[in-house]
Design brief:
Layout (H helix, E strand, L loop, with lengths): L2 E5 L4 H12 L3 E6 L14 E4 L5 H10 L4 E4 L6 H6 L1 H21 L4 E7 L22 H20 L2 E7 L1 E3 L17 H9 L6 E4 L11 E2 L1 E3 H14 L6 E5 L5 E2 H12 L5 E4 L14 H7 L8 H14 L15
Parallel strand pairs: 1-2, 1-4, 2-3, 4-5, 5-6, 6-11, 7-10, 8-13
Antiparallel strand pairs: 9-12
Helix pairs in contact: 1-7, 2-4, 4-5, 6-8, 6-10, 8-10
Bound molecules: uridine-5'-diphosphate (UDP).
Uridine-5'-diphosphate (UDP) binds next to helix 6 and strand 8.
């Protein structure tokens, strides 16, 4: 059994990873300021320290209170549009929080560090599927902040021997198949939850951002990867960090689905039409983003288990239909492991 520090463990991807760690019997200490995260999303077997990770004194206290076998770092600003309005805050916070956390891990003698990263590193890709050799050319301050953080970790590795990993997620989607956790962002900007909310009458009609792309149906194609599969990828990469560092992986299903295919899937799964209207393109959206996870599969044995769009949508739909207000009307006992 091992013990891990998980920043942002009350957030969407972080909480699913905490659940997976608890399920395999690991101890977990979550540090989350609950600005975006939800107390009810933290599996009860995990310790929750409510703190801002930029508070270095609190971080030192956390490292003094527990001995960790690794750090998983999820807490970050992550809205592309917001990052273009406040680029300096995004870069300052995301980079410095990652690097001071890595520095604290080094001082505490904790040898493994895994950070969540993004397909936004690749900007407008030159070809798809996108593998780890693709050119890194972020178009947003958010993407650049993650690239700079990854580069900082390269230095932690070179100078201090910290073994680091970064997982570049494509479109994280879905919810725990047993209904113990789900997706609840405020504001919500992602396609699947917005479309489900529209279909359930919980939100406005969906605007399709552009229908004149060079794709078969004119709408953007993305690689939706189930959050439980993402969690499994983290556990495998964490284990691989025992032996080696410098791990950088793209994580996706390897299959692309258009916006219209997502809406059709919601209809097929739920029987409900998604009210929608055609709108303008969203700035900076590439037509197609699909991951090659071949390296991750080869080196860790990972493979997506929930790889059909309908399965992904079904888990997202079930959670939102059961908890229309998200974690506000969520019974925390459901999340116990
Ligand atoms: N999208 C859309 N309407 C929305 C939100 C998203 O048409 O209200 C499209 C968006 O242009 C992209 C896809 O859905 O092609 C996925 O967007 P999301 O924001 O979920 O993830 P991203 O690809 O930006 O990481």
């Amino acid at each position: 059994m091992a013990r891990y520090l998980v920043t942002g463990g009350a957030g969407y991807v972080g909480s699913h990873v905490v659940l997976a760690l608890r399920e395999r019997g690991d101890d977990v200490v979550v540090v989350d300021d609950l600005r975006q995260g939800h107390r009810q999303a933290v599996s009860p077997g995990a310790e929750l320290v409510v703190a801002d990770i930029s508070d270095r004194r609190r971080l030192d206290e956390v490292f003094a209170s527990w001995k960790f076998d690794g750090v998983l770092h999820f807490a970050a600003l992550s809205l592309v549009g917001e990052s273009m309005r406040e680029p300096l805050r995004y870069i300052a916070e995301n980079v410095s929080n990652t690097l001071w956390l890595a520095e604290a891990a080094v001082r505490a003698g904790c040898g493994r560090f895994l950070m969540s990263s993004t397909a936004a590193l690749f900007g407008l890709p030159e070809s798809v599927p996108i593998d780890e050799g693709a050119r890194l050319q972020p178009l947003s301050a958010y993407g650049d902040s993650k690239l700079m953080a990854e580069k900082g970790l390269d230095w932690a590795e070179r100078a201090h021997g910290l073994r680091t990993a970064s997982l570049r997620y494509f479109n994280a989607a879905g919810a725990d198949p047993q209904g113990r956790l789900g997706e609840d962002h405020d504001p919500e900007t992602h396609l699947i939850p917005l479309a489900i909310n529209a279909a359930l009458g919980l939100g406005p009609a969906l605007t399709i951002f552009g229908s004149d792309y060079n794709t078969p149906d004119g709408t953007c194609i993305r690689d939706y990867v189930h959050v439980t599969d993402l969690a499994d990828a983290h556990l495998r990469v964490l284990d691989r960090l025992n032996a080696e560092g410098g791990l950088r992986y793209n994580v996706g299903n390897g299959q692309g689905y258009s916006v219209r295919e997502v809406l059709a899937s919601i209809k097929a799964v739920s029987g409900r039409e998604v009210p929608c209207a055609l709108g303008a393109r969203r700035q900076g959206d590439p037509a197609v983003l699909v991951a090659s996870s071949a390296k991750l599969q080869r080196e860790t044995g990972w493979a997506p288990r929930y790889d059909s769009l309908d399965e992904i949508v079904r888990t997202a739909w079930s959670w939102r239909a059961a908890y229309p207000q998200g974690y506000r009307n969520f019974s925390p006992t459901v999340a116990s492991v």
